[in-house]
């Protein structure tokens, strides 16, 4: 077996050891040692290798347990895959590095890792809080979802063999670069959530919805037009719209700005594209087209999911954009999709994706398929009778927890509503800050009245002129209102960060607020 | 266990059954049934689950063997992961669906698949050749590498758990969206091959080198310049350069065309960017900058790998572009990289990738890391003593085969040189077609004189004016010379397709050639 023990920075408990292995998966080495003989075939070998696998599996664990007594872990190439398997089965309920860091692995000693802590955390296992740190809430990085997916790492595992998905072409030629299975799962997801009509609609996948935003600008304009088409959106608008529209100085389209100023009650006769982000980034409000004219409207529905807002209807607009990052939290996978009524628009958007990146990563599509399927099944498999083998190993209490835990939007909504309650409590009667108020609405998904719980806190400083600078003095990084087409008294703060970071935000806001005594 | 057998179209041999499972991996479902108890922890549970794993593993195989007797396979959610494991160990030496198709899986019956055959093949297992079919060689789809990676599916497996790589940000902040481990492996690959200097250079990853080509245009131009920068390349030039340069009608740059016509011996004083693709797509020739002026030069070295051309030096230009698709064959992964001398250029290219797609798929980066690492190790682990467990199970003959089989560039070069010999033989003395001649050079990588074996055959029709139309009449799809800035007597044909498709090309070209009697 050649399993040798390696010394690493102290990893006391066997639980840590398992975390180490779990985190090792995404970049662990599986050496060619694992290769079968070139001439291996038939049931005989399959029997032989099964026996071998069982032997290896038990041996690996014997080695690991032995190793763990010496605070060491070694995921040897030969048995890495088997340890991965056992790791997934023996997964723990806590994230690696106390949930405040990731494991970094050396080039040669692949699976001997050390904790690299996220901002604000320290110590060998990242359990120490650095209270003096700077809290960066500039981006809407949806890391709060890690907790859910850690609990469902097995249902959401993605495995791709070296020879799979090598071609430029998807295994379905419907959209040449789009995996047929992903389209099916996206349609199933909207069916479960009821937030968009997909029947009879075209779906085009993109490298995140940012690529699809540019694809719509390309699809809705023409090189034959006399001048660039005006791109507008009601302020406060998503801060990326202006930069992404103008960075290449295209003659096809140009950013104009606030749709309200562009409209001003008059009927617009020239071509334009109005971006309607609803719920709105940054302020979470439900939006509708406001320009009076015959231009195009693109609905950016990245945040129209039950964890952020009541689902009041199945959206049915000409062009709707969605993204994996704000629905399941997988921002790093860079997958978005457009739901389209017009086939000509779909074809031109596909052409853009072809010219821009020659299609969309098939690995990301395979993973997105797995993730979305896991979400859909979380709602399909929510009765104990469907839990199969788990029912034999779970106590009835943890079983019911398990059932609830399968539901992504229930998890997301509970976290977001809890955070918004905490934020409103900590800012109630604040003399320094105010946040938007929302009226609850009936949510067809949860089948009850539900409050809005936006992905961002749109904070207004009551006293200071430059709210971003004011927060920065207090070691909180936010995005100023000026990026969103409004005044500097506003800032956008992400509500999607990991728990401890959110808690630190609350305590700092409370400390800042002069109307309160410091905690 | 709840493993129920499902009826599928006839899969006679147990080998086919294993192919079915192997191909099932990339989109098989792993249900939440596999989740551990929410409160599971500690060595006790890890012992329990190891025992469980061994139990499942054996049970799965018992079930599968039983199933196979009825020509059926069912990868049940609960045991899918264990079957994956066993499948990888028991991998066969042939691709699924006879290597001429892929397995399609239904939405609910996840791992009950049927063969969907590639063009020119039919039958339930895609073993039937359809001689009347149209052979599409328009794209450089590098599917010939599937054979290599199928043999190394274990060393090149990618496993990503649901909670991993969720953030927009890479785990290294060096380049905010680039995985540190990928950069290390890319540098190691160039070290092994010796085709590019990376020491002291900046590396920026992109969504394929097409995105990085656009990133260089953005990085080397400025909105302050009076008019668009001229983009040129010596004809015949890569057919995508014009379209990708002009599709957004940017005011920053515009396609001008043939660098030879642009230059015409005079010194150019206005800004320009010369694209130097070497070896050249489409004709495989080694290229150098030809414009006389102070403009920028971008070296597109997508094909500067030992399977296509002799490695005569470690390239050391200001801006060099490489791509995974033409080096390892993983086109669907959409990963390219730029090697850069100037940090300012690197930063502007990163800005482009940020605006264009908010970074690069982290799943693709994780997979690219695994694939490149496997290639590097194929050259590191090439002595029998390093083969570990294999040495116990392999005959000395298959062992030595195994050692050679570990070397990607040895595999690639042997296939490409064989194909070029076959092509030259079949066209020798042809009255219809001619192909370029090359002088062999000393290859530092193979340490001997090596012939050129380009990824494309740049075919010239001796008699007809429109070679593309002529080939189309004979059911061969090619790309006309007009797309490459030259005459229609030329066409580009991919040499990177799967074996049978290449063999069909040869027999058709021979049949076409009036100077021969039909085979």
Structural features, described:
Two copies of one chain form a homodimer. Chain A has helices spanning 14-24, 42-69, 77-89, 146-151, 180-193, 208-219, 240-246, 259-263, 324-327, 343-357, 362-380, 390-393, 396-405, 408-427, 467-473, 499-512, and strands spanning 101-105, 113-117, 121-122, 128-129, 135-136, 158-160, 202-206, 229-233, 253-258, 272-277, 296-300, 319-323, 336-340, 433-434, 441-443, 448-450, 456-461, 476-477, 479-480, 490-494. Chain A is an alpha/beta fold. Chain A folds into three domains: 15-135, no CATH class; 180-358, Aspartate Aminotransferase, domain 2, CATH 3.40.640.10; 408-516, Aspartate Aminotransferase, domain 1, CATH 3.90.1150. In chain A, the strands form six sheets. Chain A has a seven-stranded mixed beta sheet. In chain A, α1 (14-24) packs across α3 and α6 crosses α10 (343-357). At the A-B interface, α1, α2, α3, β1 and α4 of A face α1, α2, α3, β1 and α4 of B. β6 (158-160) of chain A pairs antiparallel with β6 of chain B, so a sheet runs across the interface.
Strand and helix layout:
The structure is a homodimer of 519-residue chains.
Chain A: H1 14-24, H2 42-69, H3 77-89, E1 101-105, E2 113-117, E3 121-122, E4 128-129, E5 135-136, H4 146-151, E6 158-160, H5 180-193, E7 202-206, H6 208-219, E8 229-233, H7 240-246, E9 253-258, H8 259-263, E10 272-277, E11 296-300, E12 319-323, H9 324-327, E13 336-340, H10 343-357, H11 362-380, H12 390-393, H13 396-405, H14 408-427, E14 433-434, E15 441-443, E16 448-450, E17 456-461, H15 467-473, E18 476-477, E19 479-480, E20 490-494, H16 499-512
Parallel strand pairs in A: 5-18, 8-9, 8-10, 10-11, 11-12
Antiparallel strand pairs in A: 1-2, 3-4, 7-13, 12-13, 14-17, 15-16, 17-20, 19-20
Helix pairs in contact in A: 1-3, 2-3, 5-11, 6-10, 14-16
């Amino acid at each position: 077996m050649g399993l040798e023990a390696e010394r690493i920075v102290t990893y006391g408990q066997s639980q840590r050891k398992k975390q180490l292995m779990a985190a090792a998966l995404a970049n662990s080495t599986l050496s060619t040692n694992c290769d079968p003989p070139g001439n291996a075939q038939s049931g005989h070998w399959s029997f032989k290798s099964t026996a071998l696998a069982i032997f290896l599996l038990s041996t690996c664990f014997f080695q690991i347990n032995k190793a763990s007594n010496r605070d060491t872990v070694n995921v040897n190439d030969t048995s890495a895959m088997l340890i991965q398997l056992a790791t997934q089965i023996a997964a723990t309920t806590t994230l690696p590095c106390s949930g405040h860091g990731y494991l970094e692995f050396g080039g040669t000693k692949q699976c001997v890792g050390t904790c690299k802590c996220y901002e604000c955390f320290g110590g060998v296992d990242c359990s120490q809080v650095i209270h003096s740190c700077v809290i960066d809430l500039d981006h809407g990085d949806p890391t709060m979802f890690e907790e859910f997916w850690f609990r469902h790492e097995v249902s959401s595992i993605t495995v791709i063999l070296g020879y799979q998905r090598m071609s430029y072409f998807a295994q379905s030629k419907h959209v040449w670069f789009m995996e047929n299975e992903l389209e099916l799962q996206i349609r199933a997801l909207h069916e479960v959530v009821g937030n968009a009509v997909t029947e009879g609609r075209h779906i085009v996948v993109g490298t995140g919805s940012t690529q699809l935003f540019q694809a719509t600008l390309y699809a809705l304009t023409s090189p034959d037009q006399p001048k660039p088409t005006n791109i507008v959106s009601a302020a406060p608008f998503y801060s990326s719209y202006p930069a992404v529209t103008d960075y290449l100085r295209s003659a096809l389209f140009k950013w104009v700005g606030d749709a309200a100023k562009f409209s001003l009650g008059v009927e617009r006769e020239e071509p334009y594209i109005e971006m309607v982000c609803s719920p709105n980034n940054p302020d979470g409000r439900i939006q509708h087209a406001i320009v009076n004219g015959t231009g195009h409207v693109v609905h950016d529905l990245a945040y129209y999911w039950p964890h952020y807002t009541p689902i009041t209807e199945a959206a049915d607009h000409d062009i709707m954009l969605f993204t994996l990052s704000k629905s399941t939290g997988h921002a790093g996978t860079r997958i978005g999709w457009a739901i389209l009524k017009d086939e000509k628009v779909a074809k031109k958007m596909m052409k853009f994706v072809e010219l821009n990146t020659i299609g969309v990563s098939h690995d990301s599509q395979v993973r997105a398929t797995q993730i979305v399927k896991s979400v859909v099944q979380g709602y399909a498999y929510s009765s104990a009778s469907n839990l199969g083998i788990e029912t034999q190993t779970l106590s009835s209490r943890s079983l019911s927890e398990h059932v609830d835990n399968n539901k992504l939007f229930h998890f997301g909504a509970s976290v977001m509503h809890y955070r918004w309650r905490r934020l409103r409590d900590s800012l109630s009667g604040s003399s320094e800050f105010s946040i938007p108020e929302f009226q609850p609405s009936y949510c067809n998904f949860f089948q009850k009245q539900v409050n809005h719980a936006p992905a961002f806190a749109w904070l207004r400083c009551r006293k200071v002129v430059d709210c971003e600078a004011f927060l920065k003095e207090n070691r909180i990084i936010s995005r100023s209102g000026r990026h969103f087409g409004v005044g500097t008294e506003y800032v956008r703060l992400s509500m999607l960060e990991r728990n401890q970071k959110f808690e630190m935000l609350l305590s700092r806001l409370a400390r800042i607020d002069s109307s309160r005594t410091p905690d």
